[in-house]
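Margin note: ligand = 1-deoxynojirimycin.
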Amino acid sequence: MARPADRPADRAVDRAVDRAEAPWWRDGVLYQVYLRSFADSDGDGVGDLAGVTERLDHLEWLGVDGVWLSPFTCSPNADWGYDVSDYLAVDPELGTSDDLDRLIAEAGRRHLRVIMDLVPNHTSERHPWFLDALSSKTSVHRDWYVWADPGPDGGPPNNWVSSFGGPAWTLDTDSGQYYLHNHLRQQPDLNWWNDDVRAEFERIMEFWLDRGVAGFRIDVCNIIIKDALLRDNPPATESDPLDMQLFGQRPVYNGNRPEVHDVIRQWRKLADRHPGCLLMGETPVEPVRALAAYYGDGSDELHLAIDFPFISSPLEAGAMRLIVEDVEEYLPLDAWPVWTGSNHDMSRLATRWAADDPARVRVALLVLLTLRGTPVLYQGDEIGLGDVDVPQERLRDPLGVLYWPAYAGRDGMRTPMPWRVGPGAGFTGPGVEPWLPIGEPTMGTVAGQRDDPGSVLTLVRDLLALRKATPDLSGGAYRSLAPNGDVWAWSRGDRTVVAANMGTAESPLDGMSGRVRIATDRRRDGEDFEGTLVLGGWEAVVVERTGAVPDGRPGPAEH
Ligand code: NOJ
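Resulting structure:
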């Protein structure tokens, strides 16, 4: 892959972390719970808050520090929780207010923080605000949403398309105006130019912080402000990413507006009033400069902005190295990266990155857990869980229902956790039909892997423990070592080197001596080496070096 022309070729930035001041999430590891599929405590086939509480022992044992819960607020589920009809109440299908209090308290006893999913861009069409907005052009909440008169041809006001496909506008026949929805028509976009909307969300955030949540994952926070003039988006070109080309336009005006940073700065002020409060944005933006902007000056916007090029990258040394180097290069000096390989919208890393090949899965996880930045594991990553084929008649995701068979939607990556073998898989009771099929975990269940020293689960747990015990790994600066075929290698801090062979051929790591702390082939843990370490195909290691720190600049061979 070519390096962007405006980047110096070998500039690695040392970013020393003052560990004494590091907030909990900075040295920590986050874990995403997709609530409906984590653990079902009441036998209705749907995961719930009490189910998470029952499984906190697993998360504590694994060694994570914070749990991001997918939305638990009331929703008619047109988009499974991401269409909120009451921001201040727990959806009865997922539990009660007491269940949430218990979960937060029990998590706290285990030193685990609970992060909630905040959905500020849009509400449900059934939210009382939108019902009021629909009731008349002069209603109190009319301006809380984005309305516009038809365009000159009587059609939609402009050319914006929804990120779920089709026009981003739906006509309200009663008023003759269109309302905007960047997703489903059941998810009307809020008007973030309206100060009452801003004030209301501050109240919502305060409400949940007072209840004990430790912060928010903020849904599509890059698009909440739209162009005030509602200008047409420009057409996509061949140089744009494929998804943009498919939509036929660049999302210049229906989101990604500079004014979004004013809103985020306000949120940050609010967060700063609550010690430890984390703001982690869903920020599917490119290029890296745009991502960096969501950190503001490094201290006044998001704490963490999720990097989508990394998730979307193939598991290839060159491609991933450049993405990580870009983040290292462009983020403000005080900013902290966040890395994730799976979520409830993207195919699971075991399948997407690793084609469900155990060796590749192990390499992917070792990489994810040893970069500089906060890693986010998605439930099931720790057992190498791959996507499940969900038959058409069991589809739940509106996108799968709409686009099958061209696109099967997101159900395959949202299937329930296989805790153990047997009916219900420990997710739900025997004989209960889970809301999505559970599938067969190719690398085994949680119980099946837990006591196996060679399992993916043991590898992940040991990596988390090593990360905690090794300041280099939690806080140390990242520096790429010289590119070497399929091997991506980097140093962390003074003494630690990580090397991942993302190819099938054996490859030597030269010019170094030390001891293997953890290898994806666990038989190599503790191996001492002098001068050269030979990595097998699809093998990765964390090494404690003896001797000088490599400077990361290309050696003579690369000049
Ligand atoms: C991103 C969420 O992760 C996704 O699941 C949802 O469909 C959209 N935002 C709309 O809220």
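The first strand starts at residue 30 and ends at 33.
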